[in-house]
Structure formats: C-alpha cells, structure tokens
Amino acid sequence: MTDSPLLIVGLGNPGAQYAPTRHNVGVMLIDELTSRTSPMPATLAVHKRTNTEIAETRLGGRRVILARMRSFMNVSGGPVKALANFFKVEPENLVVVHDELEMDFGQVRLKLGGGDHGHNGLKSVSKSLGTKEYQRLAIGIGRPPGRMDPASFVLKPFTSKEAAELPFVLGDAADELERSL
C-alpha cells in the first residue's frame, strides 16, 4: 500500500447543457466515486489554483483526489497538470477517465499509456504532462450512427435505453477502478 495519492480526473465539459452528454461520462464517474468514498459521500469543492472541483478522500483504503474539470475538454491538460503538480502526483498515479468511441457502449477498460484515438481531451493531457504514460479509464460510448460526425455524436445525450443502463455502466467502471487500488 502506498501513501502517494491517486489522482482520478473525470474529463468532460462544464455547463448544464453538456452534463447529460456522452463526452461527460468521465465527470459522471467522478460523481459515482464520490458516493463510494470514506467518509461517505465525498463533497467536491472548487480548487481555485487549478480551476477544478476536487474532493480529497479515501477509496478502497487508499488516499485519492477526485477531480472534475471546470474547463472544456480540449484544454483539460493544463488543469490536470496543475493538479498533479499541486498534489505531487506522478503520472503513474494519475487516472484520466474519458469517453471512448472505439468501444461499444458500456465496455470499460483500464490501462497504462497508449494512444489518444483522436480524443482531444487525452491529446491535451498528454501534451501538458509531456508523457502518455498515465492510466486511462475508458468508458465505451459506441460509434455514431450512420454518417453522423463523431464530434456531434459525443455532444449528444445518451439514448433513453443507454441512459437507463448508464448507472450500471458507471458502477462497473467504478468497480474496475476500485479493483486496481
């Protein structure tokens, strides 16, 4: 067991209009994780130095910092780097939670490093950190139907069927993360 904190960052876009969209599944997972912390539930508060919302807590016995971005997805690298620097978190103790078009809806994958698959949030984080060697928790959102532009697809809300399954998907993703602690 390490004393080094684990920084878990949920990528997404700020604002009520983006809250229910596929691109915000990372932020949704942070909300799920706050309900599992000790003491329960964790409360997110604005961290002014990094323009994020954070909760310092414990999850599965490990010290964690849960963070939601207050900046847009495409420029999330700066705040992620600022958080990592502030809390002295090395890249291997960083988990970036993001939506993934290349995985079917509901699939979950935790891995260290890798490519960004065209994901602008991951591109921004990798560029700001100067490395791709951080953990990524990908939550599958599936491919856009027909010829829909992927950029439009990720900014749309989940279908009613997907929305009904989403709490279970987020539960599975949180379970996967807790197993890795």
UniProtKB/TrEMBL annotation:
Active-site feature positions: 23 (proton acceptor)
The keyword tRNA processing appears for this protein: no
A cellular component annotation (GO) from this entry: cytoplasm
Major location category of this protein: cytoplasm
Any one GO molecular function term: peptidyl-tRNA hydrolase activity
EC number(s) from the headed UniProt entry: 3.1.1.29
Keyword Protease in record: no
Binding residue positions for tRNA: 18, 72, 74, 120
Site label Stabilizes the basic form of H active site to accept a proton, positions: 99
Signal peptide: none
Pfam families, A to Z: Pept_tRNA_hydro (PF01195)
Catalytic activity reported: an N-acyl-L-alpha-aminoacyl-tRNA + H2O = an N-acyl-L-amino acid + a tRNA + H(+)
Lineage: superkingdom: Bacteria
Function as written in the Swiss-Prot or TrEMBL entry: Catalyzes the release of premature peptidyl moieties from peptidyl-tRNA molecules trapped in stalled 50S ribosomal subunits, and thus maintains levels of free tRNAs and 50S ribosomes. Hydrolyzes ribosome-free peptidyl-tRNAs (with 1 or more amino acids incorporated), which drop off the ribosome during protein synthesis, or as a result of ribosome stalling.
Summary of subunit composition and partner proteins: Monomer.
Descriptive protein name: Peptidyl-tRNA hydrolase
Organismal lineage: Bacteria, Bacillati, Actinomycetota, Actinomycetes, Mycobacteriales
